[in-house]
Amino acid sequence: MVSRVAVVGANGRMGRLAVGLVEREPDLALHAAIGSQDDPERMAGADLVLDLTVPQVSPGVVDRALEHGIPALVGTSGWSAERLAGLERRIPEGLGVIVIPNFSVGSVLATRFAAEAARYFESIEIVEAHHAGKVDSPSGTAVRTAELMAAARGELGPVDAPHSDQRARGQQVASIPIHSLRLRGVQARQDVHFGGEGEVLTLTHETLSPSSYEAGILLGLRSLPAARGLTVGLGALLDAAAAQAPGAASS
Known about the structure:
Layout: E1 3-8, H1 13-24, E2 28-34, E3 48-51, H2 58-67, E4 72-74, H3 81-90, E5 96-99, H4 105-117, E6 123-130, H5 140-153, E7 171-173, E8 176-182, E9 188-196, E10 199-207, H6 214-223, E11 229-232, H7 234-244
Parallel strand pairs: 1-2, 1-3, 3-4, 4-5, 5-11, 6-8
Antiparallel strand pairs: 6-9, 7-8, 9-10
Helix pairs in contact: 4-5
């Protein structure tokens, strides 16, 4: 069965990548490539919607897709925990929305490792760098990383972030300072710094080519028809795919 995909934000860097990817795959077909100035009603009749717009536009795109009864895959940054909670309440029964801040498998793993390490360090800061054309900061990946680290810390409470009232100390998300760089020559990079007594641990992930996003986009699109309610993060899809793989161990 071929799924017809409406790509919203098709004129951007990720949008162009997604359009080419959809056109290349035999089980996907391009229903519409919708730019920022195009009529969003062009998504009507699609089987799936892929949102790759900007934070201020993305919620409207998702709401329009749900109004048409179309499940949506969201690759746009800016979906905070509060905004996700509101979205979850709006999803009709029988439909699914998958929100993936970063389609890179390596980035997902780096975030998991950071959440594990967060339980052992009191000093944690994030430095994220993206290309000069990225309009939002901090990145969705950095926000998601900070939120997951805070959740992993549980009763340990906020991290030690002195002088957080000074603007140069970054934007705090779940008590963790995030510093954003927007530079020419950079694709995407995130460094999570952990400081302890007599040691520093740094977890780094760097995207060298947009091709690193392709596997995640395809997994998201192919998971969307069966999705129900809200799913957040590529990690959940990777876990589900691993559990369904032939030869997967059963407990």
